[in-house]
Design goal:
3-stranded antiparallel beta sheet, 3 strands, transmembrane helix
């Protein structure tokens, strides 16, 4: 004999899948934004500029090279929260914005991984020569770390696009509360004066008229 699956277990499976995808999306989105913001504050490139006293060391943080990853990480965080504040088409649009934020972080970080513009500007300022460029240029791995953060945000957005329709919304708890029947007041016993006074205090007519 083959076991017949219980109807409740079959109905509960989509709910469990929704909870798992929700937890993974929250983890990926929050972690990705934190990684992108952290990487933007680290050293992305370094080199030297020729000055009168010799070689002058220069460094450029991610925020010096490009402000796109940090800005899109904040947008991604806002979109991650907004996913639970909207429903239906609105949720689909916000999930798309979340995915695009991650893709934008990846693109900006990878394009800027070998960029020398920020250090060239610092070299020109240090040397006083507008045509000066940075020498002994080298790059760190932090741009690629920022790209990983963008990838996590992108995955969170894709999960929201795929499973977001089954996720709960912030307003759901309050909407359920309005469906509860209102409590009906118990009739006042005319033989008990204390109940008559309580009804009068509540603004009710103890006679029931």
């Amino acid at each position: 004999m083959t076991a017949v699956p219980h109807p409740r277990s079959e109905a509960a499976e989509p709910a469990r899948s929704g909870r798992r995808s929700l937890a993974v999306a929250l983890l990926f989105g929050a972690l990705g934004a934190a990684v992108a913001l952290l990487a933007s504050r680290q050293r992305w490139a370094e080199g030297t500029a020729s000055v009168a006293g010799g070689a002058f060391p220069l460094t450029a943080k991610g925020s010096d090279v490009t402000g796109v990853p940090a800005a899109l990480a904040i947008v991604g965080l806002a979109a991650l929260v907004a996913v639970f504040a909207v429903r239906r088409a609105g949720r689909f649009l916000v999930a798309g914005l979340l995915a695009l934020s991650g893709a934008g972080i990846m693109a900006a970080a990878l394009v800027s991984a070998s960029d020398s513009t920020a250090l060239d500007e610092k070299a020109a300022q240090a040397s006083g020569d507008t045509t000066a460029t940075v020498a002994a240029l080298s790059h760190t791995g932090w741009p690629y770390v920022a790209a990983v953060g963008g990838l996590l945000i992108l995955l969170a957005g894709l999960l929201a696009l795929r499973f977001g329709s089954g996720w709960p919304a912030m307003s759901g708890r309050y909407e359920r509360g309005t469906d509860r029947p209102r409590k009906v007041a118990r009739p006042v016993d005319p033989e008990r004066p204390e109940e008559i006074w309580k009804a009068l205090d509540r603004g009710e007519d103890p006679t029931g008229a």
